[in-house]
């Protein structure tokens, strides 16, 4: 019995040893990067490492030579909306680029004719996460891939500029480039450095800050008739205030038409229309009554309405009950001269006899007209049809003060030295 017991014990020890060897083999085979000395065949491990290195080297040799670069970098935030997203490739050509929002909406874009770059067709949306994937091939047809995701700037972290005139518009010689920002600008120098206005006439053009949200540009004298003016906004990424950056990159051109400057003499109650240096018409007018005289000064037509409503309550002319002293719902041929309510417009409710003889308005300049604005032979209709946004109307000999330069597009009432002093450039 003892012999059998010892023999069984010996057999169990041998079995356990065999199992241990098998398990040890499993452990060795399962370890990817065991750097310790835990048994096994060192020669065998070296050969395995050499074999993997050869595989990696072979794979590297087989990869595409095309190198794709995506801007912005993966994970970027506060990305601009216009020119911030783009893809370029060297040693290859792009074959496919996809830009999608996190909701899966695709953004249209164009691969350049040479296949070396891609960009979106339009501006991106604010506060939106985008995923961009790109594929390119090298000369051997081997593909390369690159991916990135980014988030665009939020409304709270960005500012935009609205401006007049509009692209392609033809305007009068007095039309300034007037830019309004939707947020207060703290770093005016940086923002103005990102804006340029030039004229084909070669006139010097200077910007003037009327406030933290308004910047106008003009030359010393009126624009030269027939010239072309170019506005360039390069505000993408410009810091307008701490934590607030620009998101626009835009070029706008507009034309200057013929030169027309009209002079309203509140004393003689006549308007003289001068075009390209020659008087083409004299029109009887009725300016502001003695209690509400018309502003003096150079005023630029900023808006035109064939018919519009004029309510005195909107500009402070109210009666004892708080109602407007007047409320005319169909004022014909109205042209705005100031932000405070000064218009040059048709007047059908006044007697024909007042034009050229009496000043009767609340500060506007009235021309004879008919109800409905339907008679092209009326003086107001003629002037409306022959005027452009940007034409100048200068009022003289009124008992009122000169209009302020920032009341409308009327910066011409500031001398050139003061105008230049308001530049941050």
UniProtKB/TrEMBL annotation:
Residues 260-396 form the L,D-TPase catalytic domain. Residues 48-64 have a biased composition (Low complexity). Signal peptide: none annotated. The active site is at residues 345, 364. InterPro entries: Big_10 (IPR041280), LD-transpeptidase (IPR050979), LD_TPept_cat_dom (IPR005490), Transpep_catalytic_dom (IPR038063). It comes from the Bacteria. Residues 34-64 are annotated as: Disordered. Pathway: Cell wall biogenesis; peptidoglycan biosynthesis. Keywords: Acyltransferase, Cell shape, Cell wall biogenesis/degradation, Peptidoglycan synthesis, Transferase. The keyword rRNA processing does not apply. PANTHER family: L,D-TRANSPEPTIDASE (PTHR30582), L,D-TRANSPEPTIDASE YCIB-RELATED (PTHR30582:SF2). This is Ig-like domain-containing protein. It comes from Streptomyces erythrochromogenes.
């Amino acid at each position: 019995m003892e012999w059998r017991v010892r023999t069984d014990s010996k057999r169990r020890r041998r079995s356990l040893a065999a199992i241990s060897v098998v398990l040890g083999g499993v452990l060795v085979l399962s370890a990817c990067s065991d750097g310790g000395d835990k048994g096994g065949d060192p020669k065998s491990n070296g050969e395995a490492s050499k074999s993997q290195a050869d595989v990696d080297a072979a794979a590297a040799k087989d990869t595409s030579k095309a190198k794709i670069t995506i801007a912005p970098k993966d994970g970027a935030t506060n990305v601009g909306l216009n020119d911030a997203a783009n893809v370029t490739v060297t040693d290859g050509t792009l074959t496919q680029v996809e830009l999608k929002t996190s909701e899966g909406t695709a953004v249209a874009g164009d691969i350049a004719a040479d296949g070396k770059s891609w960009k979106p067709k339009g501006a991106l949306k604010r506060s939106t996460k985008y995923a961009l994937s790109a594929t390119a091939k090298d000369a051997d047809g081997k593909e390369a891939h690159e991916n990135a995701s980014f988030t665009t700037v939020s409304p709270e972290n960005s500012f935009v500029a609205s401006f007049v005139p509009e692209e392609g518009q033809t305007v009068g010689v007095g039309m300034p480039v007037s830019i309004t920002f939707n947020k207060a600008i703290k770093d005016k120098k940086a923002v103005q450095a990102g804006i340029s206005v030039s004229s084909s006439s070669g006139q010097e053009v200077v910007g003037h800050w009327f406030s933290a949200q308004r910047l106008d540009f003009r030359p010393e004298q009126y624009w030269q008739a027939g010239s072309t003016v170019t506005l360039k906004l390069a505000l993408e990424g410009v810091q307008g205030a701490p934590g607030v950056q620009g998101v626009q990159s835009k070029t706008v051109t507009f034309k200057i038409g013929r030169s027309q400057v009209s002079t309203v003499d509140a004393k003689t109650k006549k308007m003289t229309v001068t075009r390209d240096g020659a008087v083409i018409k004299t029109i009887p007018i009725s300016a502001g009554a003695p209690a509400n005289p018309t502003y003096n000064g150079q005023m630029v037509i900023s808006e035109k309405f064939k018919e519009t409503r004029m309510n005195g309550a909107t500009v402070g002319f109210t009666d004892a009950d708080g109602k407007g002293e007047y409320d005319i719902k169909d004022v014909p041929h109205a042209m705005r001269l100031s932000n405070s309510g000064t218009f040059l417009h048709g007047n059908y409710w006044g007697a024909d006899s007042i034009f050229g003889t009496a000043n009767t308005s609340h500060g506007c300049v009235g021309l004879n007209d008919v109800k409905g604005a339907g008679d092209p032979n009326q003086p107001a209709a003629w002037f409306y049809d022959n005027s452009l946004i940007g034409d100048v109307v200068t009022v003289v000999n009124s008992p009122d003060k000169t209009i302020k330069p920032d009341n409308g597009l009327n910066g011409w009432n500031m001398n050139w030295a003061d105008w230049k002093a308001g530049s941050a450039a």
